[in-house]
Automatic annotation (TrEMBL), chain A:
<protein>
    <submittedName>
        <fullName>Lrp/AsnC family transcriptional regulator</fullName>
    </submittedName>
</protein>
<dbReference type="GO" id="GO:0043200">
    <property type="term" value="P:response to amino acid"/>
</dbReference>
<dbReference type="GO" id="GO:0043565">
    <property type="term" value="F:sequence-specific DNA binding"/>
</dbReference>
<dbReference type="InterPro" id="IPR036390">
    <property type="entry name" value="WH_DNA-bd_sf"/>
</dbReference>
<feature type="domain" description="HTH asnC-type">
    <location>
        <begin position="1"/>
        <end position="61"/>
    </location>
</feature>
<keyword id="KW-0805">Transcription regulation</keyword>
<keyword id="KW-0804">Transcription</keyword>
<dbReference type="InterPro" id="IPR019887">
    <property type="entry name" value="Tscrpt_reg_AsnC/Lrp_C"/>
</dbReference>
<dbReference type="GO" id="GO:0005829">
    <property type="term" value="C:cytosol"/>
</dbReference>
From TrEMBL, chain B:
<protein>
    <recommendedName>
        <fullName>Aminotransferase</fullName>
        <ecNumber>2.6.1.-</ecNumber>
    </recommendedName>
</protein>
<dbReference type="GO" id="GO:0008483">
    <property type="term" value="F:transaminase activity"/>
</dbReference>
<dbReference type="InterPro" id="IPR050596">
    <property type="entry name" value="AspAT/PAT-like"/>
</dbReference>
<dbReference type="InterPro" id="IPR004839">
    <property type="entry name" value="Aminotransferase_I/II_large"/>
</dbReference>
<keyword id="KW-0808">Transferase</keyword>
<comment type="subunit">
    <text>Homodimer.</text>
</comment>
<dbReference type="Pfam" id="PF00155">
    <property type="entry name" value="Aminotran_1_2"/>
</dbReference>
<dbReference type="InterPro" id="IPR015424">
    <property type="entry name" value="PyrdxlP-dep_Trfase"/>
</dbReference>
<dbReference type="InterPro" id="IPR015421">
    <property type="entry name" value="PyrdxlP-dep_Trfase_major"/>
</dbReference>
Length: 164, 381
């Protein structure tokens, strides 16, 4: 019998595993799997399920522009990092937001339909926030790997079809 | 004089797997559960070490026994993982795959006319290897009711007491069976009492899911009569590197090296650099692969159970070995391949005792495994 944590590992690997798949792989019954997943969801351990998309492989003219932005902030007695994060994180354009060590404070990822849109968002919505002292925007030119998945031609299985 | 196979070559029938391979190769879009090697590529750090060694021009022969640094690391790894202590200078020989090591042992440590007990079902090379060396084979068929473990009873019944040597593989290909230290004790006692040396193929040692691997060489009085074979093909997913090693008492390794130095000279140099890195830095990858195999094992065993196929709980390597629902396993495998495009290997390809079973390799991604199980299920209905 596997641990409850194994369910998390498996869903991290592939969120589309069915309850039945998870049951076969872990030894839990299907109803146990459902309960465990519900409990994780309710406790906020599992926050959501998303596909990892390689936009460059999507056959469309529509552009997706992403940038990572380094933010420096100045704190005061009334304002801490969480207060600023609360404010910035509410924008739907912001897809991830992290406090980091090193030369700058926040590392945020922004997504939009065009460079213009992303630039405007940074200059109109983020930069004017009083505590923010500096922004450095890096547009993502090419994505090679996201969330552990490599974006390339899928590896062909070149093994012999039957071997001892 | 024309070219005719020598008698001892002619005595060995073509591999039972070959025919399935040819059938499968003719078909498109099959899902194969017939593959005896990992579906993962070798860990990147090991591959990169190979590339770096090539860039540096490290392309010459190594010492016959293998690079000293590699032998030292092997010694350290075997101590840490399997409680085995071997001297890198005297007791370890690096070979081109564990298969070469076994061939060396048959030729260097047995004489024509000697006999070797072969625990079966087993990897396809043991019987041919012994035959090429002129060594007589005593079949020791293990039984499904013993979960394909080697027991004193089957050893006694098969006449293994008269043999000079015993060869076996646990964790086992094709059954996925493993043996605990306790279970190995009676095998060890039998070998001591009847003065057999042991060739222990432990190539799947790190792929166990229920209990840690125990080497027979760690049991009392066994180190001096055992040669252990291991390598990088399975746990490290480095099959194509062709790198293994043999460990045993100095006199055994010296004799094996005498054949090795004239035939192989030294194991592939690039592979040796990759292996040094594998032992130093790739353990996390091995653990990740092992946990993947374990999930798939659970999945396959659970699905087979759902189909009503009897399968003992295979606990090592990456094989399940269910009973075949038809009398003729070859016929079943062929029919499953042709009608559903799923390749499995009939147990008969692995010798006595494999009859009436199918080897299903779960060294295949879960999506394919699921599809194969679905097809097999609909085939059975």
């Amino acid at each position: 019998m596997s641990s409850r944590r194994e369910i998390l590992n498996l869903l991290r690997e592939n969120a589309r595993y069915t309850t039945e798949d998870l049951a076969h792989m872990t030894g839990f019954s299907e109803s146990e799997v459902e309960t465990i997943v519900e409990e994780f969801e309710e406790a906020g351990v599992i926050c959501g399920y998303q596909a990892v998309v390689d936009w460059s492989a999507v056959d469309t003219d529509e552009e997706r522009v992403r940038a990572t932005v380094e933010l420096n902030v100045a704190l005061d007695r009334e304002t801490n990092y969480s207060d600023i994060a609360d404010r910035i994180g509410k924008f739907p354009e912001v897809t991830s937001l992290r406090l980091v060590s090193g030369d700058y404070d926040f590392d945020l990822e922004v997504e939009g339909d065009s460079m213009r849109e992303v630039s405007h968002f940074i200059s109109d919505k983020i930069a004017p926030i009083p505590e923010i002292t500096q922004t450095v925007t890096h547009y993502i030119m090419e994505s090679y790997k996201e969330q552990g998945m490599t974006f390339d031609d899928h590896d062909d299985d070149d093994r012999l079809s039957v071997s001892p | 004089m024309t070219f005719e196979p020598a008698d001892r070559v002619d005595a060995v029938p073509p591999s039972g797997i070959r025919r399935f391979f040819e059938l499968a190769e003719e078909m498109d879009d099959i899902i194969s559960l017939g593959v005896g090697e990992p579906d993962f590529s070798a860990p990147w750090a090991a591959r990169e070490a190979a590339i770096t060694s090539l860039e540096r021009g490290q392309t010459s022969y190594t010492a016959n026994r293998g690079k000293r640094e590699l032998r030292e690391r092997i010694a350290g790894y075997e101590t840490e993982r399997h409680d085995l202590t071997y001297d890198p200078d005297e007791e370890i020989l690096v070979t081109a795959g564990a298969s070469e090591g076994l061939d060396l042992a048959f030729r260097a440590l047995l004489d024509p006319g000697d006999s070797i007990a072969v625990a079966q079902p087993c990897y396809v090379s043991y019987v041919p290897g012994a035959t090429f060396a002129g060594v007589d084979v005593v079949d020791v068929p293990t039984r499904v009711e013993d979960e394909f473990k080697l027991t004193r009873e089957v050893l006694e019944q098969s006449g293994a007491a008269e043999a000079d040597a015993l060869v076996y593989c646990y964790p086992n290909n094709p059954t996925g069976a493993t043996m605990t230290g306790e279970e190995l004790r009676e095998v060890a006692a039998f070998c001591r009492e009847n003065d057999l040396v042991v060739f222990a193929d432990e190539i799947y040692a790190d792929l166990t899911y229920e209990h840690d691997h125990t080497s027979i060489a760690t049991l009392p009085g066994m180190r001096e009569r055992t040669v252990v074979f291991n390598g990088f093909s399975k746990a490290f997913a480095m099959t194509g590197f062709r790198l293994g090693y043999a460990m045993g008492p100095p006199e055994a390794i010296t004799a094996m090296n005498r054949v090795h130095q004239y035939t192989m000279l030294s194991a592939p140099t690039t592979a040796q650099y990759a292996a040094i890195e594998a032992l130093e830095n790739c353990w996390e990858e091995v653990e990740e692969m092992t946990s993947q195999y374990d999930r798939r094992r659970n999945y396959v065993l659970s699905r087979l159970d759902g189909m009503g196929l009897d399968c003992f709980p295979a606990s090592g390597a990456f094989y399940a070995f269910p009973e075949c629902p038809w009398d003729d396993a070859s016929e079943f495998a062929e029919s499953l391949l042709q009608s559903e495009g799923v390749a499995v290997v009939p147990g008969t390809a692995f010798g006595e005792g494999g009859d009436g079973h199918l080897r299903l390799s779960y060294a295949t991604g879960l999506d394919d495994l699921k599809e194969a199980m679905n097809r097999m299920e609909s085939f059975l209905q």
